[in-house]
Structures are given as structure tokens and as C-alpha cells.
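Let's practice the habit of predicting before peeking. Look at the sequence and jot down your guess about where helices and strands might fall. Then scroll down.
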Amino acid sequence: MAPKPLFNLITCILFLLILNPCLLFSNAQSNVDHYRSPLAFLKTLIGTREGHMAKNLSQLKKYLSLLGYMKMSNNSTKQAHLDNDLFDKNLEFALKKFQVFYKLKVNGILDEETVQNLIQPRCGVSDFVNLTESEFNKSSIPIIVNKYTFFPGQPKWPRINKVLTYSFPPGTRDDVMEPIRNATQQWASVAPFKFTYIKDYDKANIKISFQRLDHGDGSPFDGPGGILAHAFLPTDGRLHYDGDEKWANGPVPGNFDLQTIGLHELGHVLGLGHSNDGGAVMFPTIGSGVRKDLGKDDIDGMKALYQN
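Done guessing? Here is the structure:
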């Protein structure tokens, strides 16, 4: 028989799990409990503007490139602008595009509000903001209406695929499957597809897995915080969660909701880009302890993509 103190401890743990079974997901893939956001360095840059030199501005440029606001270049001279710590006009323009998308004060300055939006946990897929420098002037600031977007070229699954199969690699916890199933059911209610789980991971249309750091797809994760997940456009079918995050099934404080993130990433798998409607599932950022369902903008986008 277990010693009485140990028995009492086990009883207490079981009681807590019964009260809140959602916490079974917490750290399902990671033992990281306390972490510093990989983007925390941005707080040291608050107040910088065009013409300033500051350590880590090159890291900001690379992050904005990842998000689609600056372009990487094969030209060594142009690339040098991304690799230095000068706040140049290219960075100012990138920040203005970011500020327009997130409906912030458009000044091209790394102010506190802009930094707070930059450091929010988010999807690793780029935002598509097609604005030119000529659209910015002293008398007019471009406005982006709340609306869904598509990937360039509007790739989508052939309508002949009336059923899309999905699977997880061997060793994935069984309790991950329910929130993903719920997410597929939401999309099935508005998309011209049904979703079916199969055990054969290699044969599935949609392959869902937990990955960590550099995992071989050209889009490495950054550890806890920062990028939460990413997915690839049709008909690739890969959907990756960052295994270093704390995950839960439901809006558990300090954890990210598997169902909400899955719903978002499945939107990408089906062909939707990001929306700047803060109420949409396809909005790029999400806080911990938050659950979202499909919004009108998400539904309108899916119907528009597959209308023909």
C-alpha cells in the first residue's frame, strides 16, 4: 500500500483533473512552463523611427519579412538593408502597412501600440497586404475594409475531392483528436467538403502534427510564444502545431486552444489567407485562454473561394 502522504497527494491530483479535465492538454508536447517571448526584444525598440540605429532592428526586419511586410532579396545590396540595424525607409513603409492592417495609428514609428501588436502570439503564415508607397501621403491613409483574403493565385482543392481525409502521425495523443474533429465539422458546414479521419498518416490529404523549432519544412518554429502554428496552401495539406506551446482543449488561461488554432490553420489548408477582421477565426493573432468559432467573414470567404 502507498504511504499515506503519497496517497493523499495522488487523490488531490485526481480530484483537480476531474474538476478541470481540459488541463490534461496543458504541455501535451512540451515541458516548458515559464518562458520569455522570442519577440520580447521588440520592447527595447519602442520609440525608434526612420534614421535611427538600434540593436535588433535587423531581427525586426526579418520578422516582418516572415509576416509578408518586407521582401527578402537575392540581390546582395538590397539584402544588406535587411541585415543591418538601420531604421530605413523600407522598414518605415513595412510598419505603415502593418499598422494599416491592424487598424493602428499609421505613422511608421515603432510606438508602444505597434510593438504590442507585433509581439502577440500568432500564426506563422504571411499576411497579404498589397499596398504601394504611392498610396500613403500626408492627406490620405489607405483603409483596408474588413475582409477575408486568399493565397496568391487562389489555390484550392478540386471539387472532385468531396471528402478530405486527415490523420496524425503514430504516437499522437488520442485526446488531441476531439478538438480537431470539432474544427473539421465547423468547416464542413460551410465548405463543399466532408472530412474523414483515417489512421494511415501517409495517405491522408491533411497531415496534422506537432513539431518543434527547425523541423525541415523551411518554416522553423521559435519555441514558446511567437509563432503558434502554420499550415500550407492547397493541396499540400500539412498542418503543424508548435510542440513547445502549452495546449488545451478549451479556453484555459495560459494555454492555447487546440480547436481554435486548428480551425484557423484548416482555413489555410482549404485556401483562405488572413483577415483583418478581429472577430474572424482567420485573424492572424490569438491570445491564450481564448476560443473562437467561425465568423461571418470566415464563412463569406470560404463560400467566395469555392463558389464555382
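How did you do? The first strand starts at residue 122 and ends at 123.
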